[in-house]
Each structure stands twice: as C-alpha cells, then as structure tokens.
Specification:
By secondary structure, the chain is mainly beta. It is 10% helix and 39% strand. Strands 1-2-3-10-5-8 form a 6-stranded antiparallel sheet.
C-alpha cells in the first residue's frame, strides 16, 4: 500500500466508465442473462460488475471461488442466498458479500424474473460468463471445464 492509501495503484481505471440502462455486453448461461456494466479489462482486473436477470426457480449450483469475493445486491425480486451454512432471504435492497473459499449459491424464489447486481473482485472470473456464452445448457461437462479454468469448484 502506498502512503496515499491507493491500495490498487496499478489497477482500476483512470477514465470514467458510463453505461446507461440496458447498455453493456450481454451474455447468457443456464437461462440466466448477464449484462456487463463494467468489464474486468476496463479496470485492470480489479473488479467487474454485471447486472444479472435470473428466471424464477433458477440460479447457479453451489460453488466455491478460490480467488474472488462476490458481492450480490438484489435489484428486483426475491432471492434465497446460501452463504456457507446460512440461508438468507434476500428481497430487493438486500446485499450479501461472499468471500473467497466460502461455498455459496443463490436462487430466484419469486414467481417472476429477478435481477441482481454482481460485483466480482478481482474481476477476472467475470470472463467466465463470456467464455460460457453460447455453450448448450445441457453440456454440463463443458460448463464445468470452463469454470475450472478459473479455479472455481462446483459442489453439487
């Protein structure tokens, strides 16, 4: 850490990043849709931010990240977020921080599509969503192979 308190002196961005509503690269996996509001490459890998639209009853399998913290902020709808051994009801306005090495998942438990804002720190893992875009949802072996490149383990 430098004396000025810049804990990420060689990352982040030196220019503003502005995305309007609906703007950003859109990708999909397992019927979920992610819109990149900030790509990892735009921040020197420091973080990435994605808006995710999750259909009713959906969410990722239980998994654990070895390098990333994920921050989930619920924009709309009703989620149940599992973090470690806790199950948390997460309506719009709820926030859950999922540190590395703690298994987690989330599920849209509402009856309609729900949205959350996902911040990934550092941002490299967010590229998983680009890598898996277009892979057939039924091809679990390919999805697991792609996620393994990021040192993320699917636990269920």
């Amino acid at each position: 850490m430098d004396p000025m308190g810049n804990f990420l002196p060689e990352t982040e961005t030196t220019v503003p990043i502005i995305r309007g509503p609906g703007e950003g690269k859109v990708v999909g996996v397992l019927r979920d849709q992610s819109t990149f509001k900030v790509r990892s490459e735009e921040t020197g890998g420091a973080y990435a931010i994605l808006e995710q639209k999750i259909p009713s009853g959906h969410g990722p399998p239980l998994h654990v990240h070895r390098h990333e913290t994920e921050i989930f902020y619920v924009l709309e709808g009703q989620f149940e977020i599992t973090i470690g051994d806790q199950k948390v009801a997460a309506p719009a306005g709820a926030l859950v921080v999922g540190p590395r090495n703690i298994p987690h998942t989330f599920r849209n438990v509402g009856s309609q599509d729900a949205r959350l804002l996902l911040t990934v720190i550092p941002g490299r893992f967010a590229n998983y969503f680009i890598d898996v875009d277009g892979v057939d949802d039924g091809d679990q072996a390919e999805i697991k192979a792609i996620i393994a490149k990021y040192d993320v383990e699917i636990l269920e």
